[in-house]
Amino acid sequence: MEMLLSVDFHFSSAHRLPYYDGPCKRLHGHNYQLRVTLAGKPSPKDGMIRDFDEVKRRVWESVLVQCDHVNLNDFMDNPTAENLVVWMWERLQPQVEGLKELQLWETPEYCVTYRQD
Questions:
Q1: How far apart are CA 19 and CA 76, in angstroms?
Q2: Are 55 and 38 in contact (CB under 8 A)?
Q3: Total-model pTM
């Protein structure tokens, strides 16, 4: 029986979208929410898919330490939510076993989803 496990994260970043013709072309900030979802089977030993704290540590160390309270343009040319979630996936996939899906909310109303094919 495969199950899904999700951990939510919050971080704040600034960015500007240099190729967008609108107000987001100017520097502004967001309070992001990232949901990391893993797929797996509960261990017969401890009954868990993964330790929540271990997932939290790996996500912070692998991506969020680089994103929290920074200007995303310092390391990404066009930091749209779509580009940012792909950047996160590429760093998390080798670090988080069973990574299934990332959801990134730029605001409470706007979210992009990236998942394993």
A1: 13
A2: yes
A3: 0.95
Q: Model confidence at 44, in pLDDT bands (50, 70, 90)?
A: very high
The rounded distance, in Å, linking the Cα atoms of 42 and 115 is: 21
pLDDT digits (tens, 9 = 90+) for 74-88: 999 999 999 999 999
Between strands 110-115 and 70-71, the pairing is unpaired
The parent domain of residue 65 ranges over 3-115
| CATH for 99 | 3.30.479.10
- What is the rounded distance in angstroms from the CA atom of residue 98 to the CA atom of residue 92? 10
pLDDT value, residue 116: 78
Task: Please say if the pLDDT value at position 1 is more than 80.
Answer: no
Q: Cα–Cα distance between 67 and 32 in angstroms, integer? A: 10
Give the strand pairing for 3-15 and 28-40. antiparallel
Domain count, the chain: 1
